[in-house]
Amino acid sequence: MINFKIPIVWDTKYIDEMIDIAESGDIVITEMYGSLPIEKSGRTTKYIENISFAKAYGILDYLRNKGIKFNYLFNSIYQKNEIDTELITKVMTIIDELEPELLTLANIELMKKIGAISPKQGLTVSTVFGIDSLEKISLIKGLKRQGLNIKEVVLHHDCNIRRDLDNLIMELKKCNIRSSLIVNENCTYGCKRRDEHFKWAATAIEHDNSDYCLRGCVRDILISPWKILSLTGLIRPEDLDFYKKIGLDTFKLSGRHKPKEYLINTFRHYARRKYSGNMINLLTFSIPPGKQAKELFYVENSMVTSIKEKWKSEPTRFAILEAKKLYEKELFRINDEGSKYELIDGSLKNKKPGKYLEKISKIDKCSINMAKKMNHIDFM
Which residues of 219-239 are buried (b: 16+ CB within 10 A; e: fewer)? Predict the structure, then answer.
């Protein structure tokens, strides 16, 4: 049996359909998660449905009658340096109005404040916090010893391919904390923009479409396409059982900012433990401006090497060799009009920029200058 945490859509028909899919694949939905647009979380609030507390509570009551918990996400690590009364009031309003079984947080000071006010409130440590080492786990264990009711940690994306993942899981189990991993994010291994991207998501104004971090990552992939095979935020449906064997039985489907049709279709692939088609369709990958990731990249998922074999190689070396293999078999394509790609010393590289790569390269400088004016930290 495998457990999944999935985004909530405020619709009982959606809940029923996701439960049916789970039951067809020997999966238990242990929780649904989400938020309301009263405060920034790990996504800009423009993606979050605005409904009343009364309507939300009614749907959560329906959810709980199905035996599924609700986890409210308040997971921006970039809240104000000082946790002020206004922020605490917002969090306590959520606790009072919605009674979430779990509250996902990424800010340690906020965890302490909420733990002091509501010591029984279950807490999940967000992936935004970046738990990826025994040292950071020791910090979380220390917080639990102080009385915080920490139930679960969503591990850093890179832990998906960490050879010591089983040790991290076991260390958390020692203090009765569950581990989980996200299965469908498009973060590359060791992404240098990770923290900056979370800051952008937490502080971007509602009409801001200048996701310069994501655009920078897409640009890097277009220049060195093998990087798309180094996505550590992706656990393919075929690889779920491998992780279960090393001790991880809980997974998180990302995508609360995506249409419910995407969530339903993607969850169905994971329930079936297999998917034939473009690997990019599994991801929450959105690329600004004006183009869909699945139009730009094609990787035949059914022909990607299993994680069991991947773990035998160094991650970057594996990605380079895997890209070469798939490209030579025409199972990996980059569809950027006017572009030219070649295998150079065994590594797939861009030789001539296409129209899309040229476009995002031209607007990148403008976006970076805008970010600096907004006092975002440098990432280049």
Answer: bbbbebbbbbbbbbbbbbbbb
Q: What is the pTM of this model?
A: 0.90
For residues 79 and 193, membership in a common domain is answered with: no
Domain count, the chain: 2
Residues 170 and 237 grouped into a single domain: yes
Shared domain for 75 and 201, answered yes or no, is no
For residue 42, the tally of other CB atoms under 10 A from its CB is 22
Any residues with CB less than 8 A from the CB of 221 and at least 6 apart, and which?
Answer: 188, 227, 228, 297
347 shares a domain with 255:
no
Nearest Cα residue to 201 out of 41, 350, 65, 358: 41
What is the chain's pLDDT, residue by residue, as a tens digit (380 residues)? 999 999 999 999 999 999 999 999 999 999 999 999 765 555 544 556 778 999 999 999 999 999 999 999 987 655 445 577 888 999 999 999 999 999 999 989 999 999 999 999 999 999 999 999 999 999 999 999 999 999 999 999 999 988 899 999 999 999 999 999 999 998 888 888 887 777 777 666 544 556 778 888 899 999 999 999 999 889 999 999 999 999 999 999 999 889 999 999 999 999 999 999 999 999 998 776 667 899 999 999 999 999 999 888 888 999 999 999 999 999 999 999 999 999 999 999 999 999 999 988 887 655 555 545 544 433 32
The whole-angstrom separation of Cα 114 and Cα 95 is: 10
CATH number of the domain that residue 118 is part of: 3.20.20.70
